[in-house]
Specification:
Elements: E1 6-13, H1 19-25, H2 30-38, E2 43-51, E3 54-61, H3 64-74, E4 84-86, H4 88-100, H5 111-125, H6 131-150, H7 160-168, E5 178-182, H8 186-197, E6 202-206, H9 210-219, E7 224-227, H10 232-235, E8 241-244, H11 255-258, H12 271-283, E9 291-295, E10 312-315, H13 321-330, H14 332-384, H15 391-421, H16 425-435, H17 452-466
Parallel strand pairs: 5-6, 5-8, 6-7, 8-9, 9-10
Antiparallel strand pairs: 1-3, 1-4, 2-3
Helix pairs in contact: 2-5, 4-6, 4-14, 5-6, 6-14, 7-8, 14-15, 14-16
């Protein structure tokens, strides 16, 4: 059965909050987040999407107020100004937009569609996907696939990894450079492939599980090596470009690893600091490039103090805005096309819910009528048996009963479908209460009681039985 529930959602994104807000919002895992939401009384379904630049939670409850209260608790550790809340229609439309890539840091990026799928599987494993979210999330995945195959929304820079490479190229020449990627997860893989394609001379991939880094290194079209995290102390200070993208709860890079050999960290505000900065500005060249670090981690992979080093520039997710803005401008026409696609698919999703709700009530109505029909047939046929009543005559009576039910229910069936199309949920819900197949059972007709004519008919049959 499609529950008579509503979808409510809340999220913290790269647009609404800071990197620290995203870190505070992130659950232990997507599956754990779904489990927490389902533990709230009256929450029937739940879905959580957690990435480096968004944490989103969707719930289904019979009352929107219940859903809002559950989400308030879910995001209780986050600054209230960073949380965006959506009611039913806005939640569904937003989910479609997310999967299509319109809400991503890099407009139209491909990574999000896989993340939506993974979150769907995590929610299913946690028991959070019922029929309402099944329809919503699978529709979102469908929209995301259409957006990427039918438009040019993902042409050019298609991930944060490639955006990081483009940002680094503004400060150092990537051709012939030495590069380091910290983390071999999905984001690290994207960054490594982008750097390899940019023409770096050497690429080192550092990861806690070295075998994962080694596997990635063999797939790259570049001179790539793998190393453990413990090697960062020596490797990081030799790299021209560093991209960090791990899932660590604490920074994995700091001034100690990033400062160049012989570089002393000056006291803040001293003459030495000023002289060092001036020297760096005047001597930095293509032969002596400034070290660029792009931190894609959430929480941060690079300690903020590293940015104080005179030869190091540290960028984080917020600094990618300039790159992503260029992408948005290039893809403006495609984005408008995707928005129109979302409008159509959103309408189809709403119609799907309406048809399902109407079909549920219609099925309940026919099931109720069929039970009454079978009961009355058995009563009537039992009275006719033994009086020369043939099998053919029995079939005629049963056919007449079926025809009566179908003809009597045809007008309300049409009315219910029209009510669903016109958002007349009062009529739909009233009909569901009248014909709920789980009500009544063997104890008699459904409540409210049958009309006077039906009751009179039952009385006549009971009288006949007594005679």
């Amino acid at each position: 059965m499609i529950p008579a529930g509503v979808v409510t959602a809340a999220c913290v994104t790269h647009e609404s909050g800071s990197v620290d807000d995203l870190a505070a919002a992130s659950p232990e895992s997507q599956q754990a987040g779904v489990t927490d939401l389902l533990s709230v009384p009256d929450i029937e379904e739940a879905y959580v999407l957690s990435t480096c630049n968004r944490v989103e939670a969707y719930v289904v409850a019979s009352d929107a107020a219940v859903g809002r209260a559950a989400l308030e608790e879910f995001f209780a550790s986050v600054d209230d100004d960073a949380v965006v809340r959506n009611d039913h229609d806005e939640s569904l439309r937003h989910l479609l937009s997310v999967a299509a890539g319109l809400e991503s840091v890099v407009l139209g990026e491909d990574q999000i569609i896989g993340q939506v799928r993974t979150a769907y599987e995590d929610a299913r494993n946690a028991g959070g996907i019922g029929e309402m979210l099944e329809a919503a999330v699978t529709k979102a995945i469908h929209v995301g696939e259409r957006a990427r195959t039918e438009t040019e929304i993902n042409e050019g820079v298609v991930s944060l990894g490639s955006a990081a490479t483009k940002l680094a190229a503004r400060d150092v020449s990537l051709e012939g450079a030495t590069s380091l990627v910290v983390g071999a997860g999905e984001m690290g893989q994207l960054a490594a492939r982008s750097l390899a394609d940019s023409g770096v001379d050497e690429l080192v991939i550092v990861n806690r599980t070295v075998s994962h880094a080694e596997h990635l290194a063999t797939e790259l079209d570049a001179d790539a090596d793998a190393a453990p995290l413990s090697a960062l102390d020596t490797i990081a200070s030799e790299a021209d470009v560093v991209v960090a993208a791990t899932g660590s709860d604490e920074p994995v890079l700091g001034p100690r690893q990033l400062e160049a050999d012989g570089e002393a960290r000056p006291e803040a505000g001293t003459e030495t600091e000023t002289e060092t900065e001036t020297e760096t500005e005047t001597t930095t060249s293509d032969d002596d490039p400034e070290r660029v670090v792009v931190d894609l981690g959430q929480p941060r992979d690079v300690a903020p103090a590293a940015d104080a080093l005179s030869t190091v520039v540290v960028y984080d997710l917020d600094d990618l805005e300039s790159i992503t803005q260029e992408t948005r401008e290039q893809r403006a026409d495609a984005a408008r096309e995707v928005e129109r696609m979302i409008d159509r698919e959103f309408d189809l999703l709403c119609e799907q819910y309406k048809r399902a709700r109407a079909d549920e009530v219609i099925a309940a109505m026919y099931e109720s009528a069929d039970r009454i029909k079978q009961r009355e047939l058995e009563t009537a046929l039992s009275q006719l048996e033994g009086n020369g009543f043939s099998a053919e005559q029995r079939e005629v009576v049963e056919a007449m009963a079926d025809a009566l039910v179908n003809q009597l229910l045809a007008p309300p069936t049409k009315s219910l479908r029209e009510a669903a199309a016109e958002d007349d949920w009062s009529t739909i819900n009233t009909a569901l209460q009248l014909f709920d197949p789980d009500f009544g059972g063997d104890d008699g007709p459904l409540a409210p009681p049958l009309n006077a004519a039906a009751q009179a008919s039952e009385t006549r049959l009971e009288t006949a039985d007594d005679d």
